[in-house]
Automatic annotation (TrEMBL):
Pfam families: Abhydrolase_3. Residues 147-369 form the Alpha/beta hydrolase fold-3 domain. Keywords: Hydrolase. The keyword Cell inner membrane does not apply. Transmembrane segments: none annotated. InterPro entries: AB_hydrolase_3, AB_hydrolase_fold, GDXG_lipolytic_enzyme. This is Alpha/beta hydrolase fold-3 domain-containing protein. The lineage of its organism: Eukaryota, Fungi, Dikarya, Ascomycota, Pezizomycotina. GO terms for molecular function: hydrolase activity. The keyword Ribonucleoprotein does not apply. It comes from the Eukaryota.
Length: 400
């Protein structure tokens, strides 16, 4: 199920769903204050900078993202950039929460003629983890399972906000040749409600659950964007270091000697939580200052340079070789995003160990664009990134 581009009507309806939730979670006066503080940006800075950057500035000097972005994409990214820098995360998380995202998805489905989802999904709630199980045919065994951890700086985001993305991805996975693809999206606890190691423990428990659904680890593709990719990398390093007793616990005593997943697909991974290589760019909506604040909140009392907290701090190429999935990595990121240089250097490290790594650097691309584009871009462009990822998963996981 692939819905059309988000329209202005969708934006209005989203605000209708959002407003009461903001008042309920942040209070009326705090919500009003946040809105009033945004007015100078919305009424003055946004239109002036938009006109200057797109129509006055010589094209040769325009930001690479602006050069190819539509005006709808450009305006939305500018608003997200403002929100990331100035809206407190406890308010920002409401934008991406289940009570807002789920009714919004149902409205978009209704607008496209769907009263019910043609793809099955349901919540999974256990004592040590929870998430969403999405599958083409719930009565058949999946031939590939994507284990996904969402992004959001550890402080915001939800599986429900990504649900439309997952439904589209599942459709494209089936089009690429899989018979019955499935996705399990981990719903981990956000900061500051809990901090490390809670999120990693939940990621481990979620992987154990996915193993129980697919007895063959080679059919599992671990994936995530941004902070979710951090958790996936931490999971891989954890699996590399476990003892035989721990292995037996994860596999529930089954005779599985190698529990590494078949493949890892990462979208704009936050490889190193605090890095001097993180540079602010004019196109991206992230900024290092806010990111590093989120990083320290996530690490809490743990050592932020620990490889299980911040996987990019593991510079041991041989350890990465042992931790690597059987079919290696596919990494998608943008040339204009804050993490670009850190990702490039990490890819070089992996390749130095002889690990199978494919990476795609989107020219002019910004952070987690395959996810964002599904909502913002035109019909053809919005599927480009996730279609490429689906085809790479099919090719790599089916290779010998």
């Amino acid at each position: 199920m692939i819905l059309g581009q988000v329209s202005w009507l969708d934006c209005i309806v989203f605000l209708v769903f959002l407003t009461p939730q903001l008042i309920a979670h942040a209070g009326f006066f705090r919500t009003l204050s946040c809105g009033l503080q945004a007015l100078p940006f919305l009424l003055i800075k946004l239109p002036l900078s938009f006109i200057h950057d797109r129509y006055i500035l010589d094209r040769a000097y325009r930001d690479p993202f602006v050069q190819h972005a539509t005006w709808f994409e450009d305006i939305t990214v500018r608003c997200v950039r403002y929100a990331f820098a100035y809206i407190p995360p406890d308010i920002g998380r409401v934008f991406l929460s289940q009570p807002v995202a789920l009714p919004f998805l149902r409205f978009r489905m209704f607008r496209h003629g769907y009263l019910h989802s043609p793809i099955h999904w349901h919540e999974v709630k256990q004592n040590d983890f929870q998430g969403l199980w999405i599958i083409e045919n719930q009565f058949q065994e999946p031939d590939v399972v994507i284990y996904y951890a969402h992004g959001g700086g550890f402080s915001m985001g939800s599986s429900y906000f990504y649900l439309e993305f997952f439904l589209a991805w599942l459709s494209l996975l089936k089009s690429s040749g899989f018979r019955n693809p499935a996705i399990f999206s981990l719903e981990y606890t956000l900061v500051p409600d809990k901090s490390y190691p809670v999120q990693l423990l939940q990621t481990i428990a979620g992987y154990k659950h996915v193993l129980s659904l697919s007895c063959d680890p080679a059919r599992i593709c671990v994936s995530g964007d941004s902070a979710g990719a951090t958790l996936i990398l931490s999971l891989l390093l954890y699996l590399e270091s476990i003892t035989m007793d721990t292995l037996a616990n994860i596999t529930d005593g089954k005779e599985i000697r190698d529990i590494r997943p078949g493949l890892a697909v990462l979208i704009s991974p936050w490889v190193t939580l605090v890095s001097p290589k993180d540079k602010i760019t004019s196109g991206d909506y992230l900024n290092p200052t806010t990111l590093h604040q989120y990083a320290h909140q996530y690490a809490n009392k743990a050592i932020i340079n620990s490889s299980l907290v911040s996987p990019g701090n593991c510079k041991n190429a041989e350890r990465w070789k042992i931790a690597s999935p059987a079919k290696g990595f596919f990494i998608h990121y943008g040339s204009e995003e804050v993490f670009a240089q850190e990702i490039r250097d990490w890819v070089v490290l992996l390749k130095s160990a002889g690990i199978a790594v494919e990476s795609w650097e989107e020219k002019g691309g910004i952070h987690a664009w395959p996810v964002a584009a599904l909502f913002l871009s035109s019909t053809r462009e919005r599927q480009k990134g996730i279609k490429m990822i689906s085809e790479r998963i099919r090719k790599l996981m089916c290779s010998k």
